[in-house]
Structures are given as structure tokens and as C-alpha cells.
Amino acid sequence: MITVLAGGVGAARFLQGLVAVHPPSDITVISNVGDDAEFFGLHVSPDIDIVMYHLAGLADEQRGFGLRGDTFQVIDAIGRYGYDTWFRLGDGDLATCITRTHLFQKGRTLSEATQEIGSALLMPVRITPVTNDPLRTKIRSDDGVLDFQEYFVKRRTEGHAWEIIYEGSEQAAPAPGVIEAISSASTVLVTPSNPLVSIGPILSVPGVRDALRATEATVVAVSPIVGGKSVKGPADRMLRDQGMEASATTVARLYADFVDVLVIDSVDEGLAAGIEELGVRAVITDTIMDSMEKKTALARVALAAAG
Amino acid sequence: MITVLAGGVGAARFLQGLVAVHPPSDITVISNVGDDAEFFGLHVSPDIDIVMYHLAGLADEQRGFGLRGDTFQVIDAIGRYGYDTWFRLGDGDLATCITRTHLFQKGRTLSEATQEIGSALLMPVRITPVTNDPLRTKIRSDDGVLDFQEYFVKRRTEGHAWEIIYEGSEQAAPAPGVIEAISSASTVLVTPSNPLVSIGPILSVPGVRDALRATEATVVAVSPIVGGKSVKGPADRMLRDQGMEASATTVARLYADFVDVLVIDSVDEGLAAGIEELGVRAVITDTIMDSMEKKTALARVALAAAG
């Protein structure tokens, strides 16, 4: 059994490779929910959806969110009503959000709604949110505390991120099965996702980090920082905003208490010794997932590193 | 000041004529809400919307509801998730419903939401729901009590309508301004709409019928029954299902306690004497609104009948 801690696009790409080399029915994905949001009263779960859309073969891989070939009729019409539409939800994506919100109204949890939507999308893996409780990543900026999507989409991550806040994390309980999935796994994989705003919120849920430290599974992370830069997104800049170096070494340091192995890119070979000094084994390979072959190759390396 | 009691398509067509012959800013429309419904958690107000879409020049006049040239991306996607989509809301129409539902979540009433949406659609007249409270028309059928849209859209009005129920009407309060609009009007017009399921729910709100009886305004109704048939929709069959004759005379009888004048079609000239015996003056004209000219002509006749 493999359990995967997943953020957004990096996780989705990694999982595309993983399901090609390991039986999907043995895989449980624990998804970040810190970037969930409500737009026009509809619940958006970007990380859950982008993983599902990728695994269903429906993702807009260019844009990095939403559905390929989606239309924007509704959001444009809402815009004509004079409302802010900087969060450009496509029509098909909106159908997912309407369905999810409606399932909430009928009393379902996010876990249950995710299972129902995943089932309609013929998800080959089990996907669960890390928590069913409201957990929202906020960014303390020069203009005050921003909702994550306001920082990420509306402001395009401009400005200094002084602090990353996992609002609601102290009261959040792990969703049913989350702790068990970590404890009973033979391998736990941490996808190459932003350690601060993708993996960080998962780790902030009480009990999750303890379970990762305690599990007998080998825990293998893949660094999202390559050659001092994030492969995609603002992870490098956000790390520096927190006073940290943007490097695979920092990733190793952030995860050192629960990770056994960090897969780093060949360009970071020179960092291996420093990482191993942190008690984390470094495995070196090509981590840039710009083709299906490279995705499966990376998944194989991560699985082999778990032994 | 003119106050108009309005149902769906018949009301919308009549109002297109009325705003062409009378200053729209002097017109208040009191809309039926009995056919409001929730689909996928979104609040649909079909009668309010079809009137607004017609007056904004955006209506799908062929289909009789929704927006001209609308697309159906979201409802099709929701269908792919396995849900019932017999209520075919277009994308632009859905944007109206999402906006309205979101305004409710922010604490606005249906009156306030209608005003905000109407304002975005540059409504020339004031439109208010008859009540902000939940008032839902239900149909007692051979298969039990049906929601109105289930009877009207899903079952295409098939089967015997044993009883029309205005659920919630006893607890419903008139929306702000409704009673005043009736009391202070110089003319009240009742559009050629289904007396049972369009005008009936309006009359069922406590205080409304009394205000209509008490107003010094001349109250002029236009019969939706022409030559024993409804111009559009199931009014004729529903009247017969209730044991009534489908005729302009029945319309006069249903409204006799508050209507001064009933405008009937030339084909029903023979009914005029019987209608006048009910204490309702009959005015005879062409009531079929199949062109803009006929809509304005009908509006002129109704206004002239009010004196």
C-alpha cells in the first residue's frame, strides 16, 4: 500500500507517472485543502480537482488548473453582473464545484463528496482530503492577511509573503482513514509540491506529522526545488520570503523529522552530502517531469528508493 | 403609477407592450414566486427571470424561458456526473441563479437580490417578488404531491392536477412595498397568466387580495383563456382538472372580488354578457400577442379600460 501526500500540479504530474508503474487500487492520495476557497458560494477544491482531472485525462495541463477545452460562459455572465471574476472557473470545473457544494448541502463531508465525484470521474486511486474541517492557508502580506487564492491568483504571488498561516489547523481533525493510510502504508511518498502551501497545510493537521514520524513505512519525498528554483510556482520565492534558502537542502530540513529519503535533481548533486548530514538519504535523478516517460521514470526511482 | 401582477411568459410579453406605451419608471411589477425552485442548491426564480430577460431584450422567446443563444456546458457536465438534469438551465441563466443564491448567502432577501440583478440588467421597471418568504406551488397528482417544476417541466404537465397547493402561503408576508404598490396605484393590471399557478400564488399571500379589493385603483385583468384554450401552457387543462370550465368567464369568476375590468379576446365576444353579470366589465379586443404591434395595442386597450 502506497500513501501519497499531494499538493497541486506537481502532485498531479507525479501521480500520472505513479499510476503507470504501480497498481492504482493500492494508492491512497491525501490531498491538501489549504487552498480551498468559496467563490459565489461554491466550494472550490483546486488541489483535489487538479489531481482528479489529471488522472482522468481531462486536465488542462497547459494552464495548470481546470479542464482541457473548458468554456467560460458562466464566469463571463457573472462578470457581466458586475462581480469580480479573477478566479476564472471554467464551466465544467464549475459543474464540479456546484456538485460538491450541493453534496455539502445534503450533509456530505468533503471526503464523501470527493469520493462521489471521483467515482463519477472513474478515479483509479483513492483520494481523500487531509481534513474535512475548514483549514485555509493565508498569507500575511504588506497589505494584511490575504486568502491564499487572493495571493496566488488575484495578485499572482506578487509582494512579500511575510508569514504562511494555516488557519483552522489547530481545530482540524484528520479525515477518516488519513492516519491509518499513513500508519499502515509500506511506502509514503511526498510529491514535488510547494512545502509551505501544499505539503505544509497537510502537516499542520494535528496527528498527521506524528503519524509520519511514527510510521514503519519508508517516507520518500521528491524535491520541488531544482537548482535553487521551483519547477513551477512561487515555492522558491516564498521560501526566501521566510528567510530560508530556496534549495533541496531546505526541503530536506523542513521534512527531516519524518522523511527517510529525498529525491533530488541531478543538477543538485552537490547538495547530497549536506542533505545526508540532516539524516535524510539523498537519491539523485532527473526530476523534471516534461514527458510521460520522465514521469514514470521518476515514480520508479521514488519507489525503488523506498526499497 | 401602474402596478402589475405578473406570472411568466404571458406577463413578460404583456410587459414588453406596456413599457412601450407607458413610462417604465412608473411601473411596479409584483412577480409570482410559487414556481421558484432549488436545483443543485441554486435558487431559480423562473417568473422573475423571464420577465427581466424579456424586458432586457435577452429572452429566448421561442423556448419561453432562459436566455437567447445560451449554452448548456454546466448542466451537461453535471449530467455527466450522473445527476438528473431535466431542468435545463443554460449557462447564462445559471449565472443569474448563482448570483442570486450568493446574494442570499450574504443575507440579502429575494427583493434585494432581484433589485441588484435587475439593476445589472438595466431593468426599466421596478420588479419585486410578492413575498420574500418560501411560497411554493405544489400539485397533488395521482402519484402524490409534486413540486411545481416536477409537474411542469419533468412531467410536462401530464396527469390530472387534483389540487393546487400554495405551500407556505399562510406564513408568507408580502415583500416590502407590495401592499403599498397595490394601494397607491392608479391602475392595477393582471397579466394574461395562468390564474391557478401564476396569479393564484400572488393572491394567496395574506394581505394581497384584501389590498386588491380595497384599492382605489381600477383593476384590469387580461384573460389568458381564449376560445376555451390557454394561449400557452396548461391553464385550460388545470382549470378543467379543478372542475371548472376553461373560459374567460371562469377567469372573471376567479377574480370577480377584486377586478373591475376583464379584457377578453374577440373570439369570446359571446361571453361578455355573462362576465358582466359577475360585476366585471368586459372589454373585447385581440389578445393574441404574436407581434410587437399587438403587444402594444393590447397594453393600450388595458390602460384605456382603466380610464
Structural commentary:
Two copies of one chain form a homodimer. In chain A, helix 1 (9-21) runs parallel beside helix 2 (46-55), helix 1 (9-21) crosses helix 13 and helix 4 packs across helix 5. Chain A contains 13 helices and 14 strands. The first copy, chain A, has a seven-stranded parallel beta sheet, sandwiched between helices. Chain A has two domains: 2-135 and 170-306, CofD-like domains (Rossmann fold, 3-Layer(aba) Sandwich), CATH 3.40.50; 136-166, no CATH class. The mean pLDDT of chain A is 96. Chain A has helices at residues 9-21, 46-55, 73-80, 91-105, 110-120, 148-154, 178-183, 195-204, 208-214, 235-241, 248-255, 272-277, 292-306; strands spanning 2-6, 27-31, 37-39, 42-44, 126-129, 136-141, 144-147, 163-167, 187-190, 218-222, 225-226, 229-230, 261-265, 281-285. Chain A starts with a strand and ends with a helix. Chain A binds chain B through residues 40-42, 70-71, 73-75, 77-78, 80-83, 91-92, 94-96, 98-99, 101-102, 105, 117, 120, and chain B through 40-42, 70-71, 73-75, 77-78, 80-83, 91-92, 94-96, 98-99, 101-102, 105, 117, 120.
